[in-house]
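INTERNAL AUDIT FORM
Audit reference: QA-55
Scope: verify that the stored structure record matches its stored sequence.
Auditor: D.O.
Record contents follow.
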Amino acid sequence: MRELPSTIEQVHREFGGQGLVVLAINLGEAREHVAAWAKSQKVSSTILLDSTGAVMESYRVAYTPTVFLVGRNGKLLGRTIGNKNWLSEKGRALFRALLAP
């Protein structure tokens, strides 16, 4: 697991109050390990566990991180693989546009 605050955790902290929901999915680690790590890193976003690999298989996740952007209506807006500079001006503009009423 990476040190925090990761970029996506920073995005959660910056845009969470505006309606952005960040769900991290841990692939295959024990609940106790993930919980201890999240507490030690002061993670404020939600971490879900995929202990069986079902989510990874269903969403065809082959690499981490994989980020899915889902609109308010539940439709997939985009998918990207790898680390991105979500806190750049382009990244922030994307989130502001997605969060606009």
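Auditor finding: record pair retrieved intact. Residues 86 and 92 are 6 Å apart (CA to CA).
Action required: none
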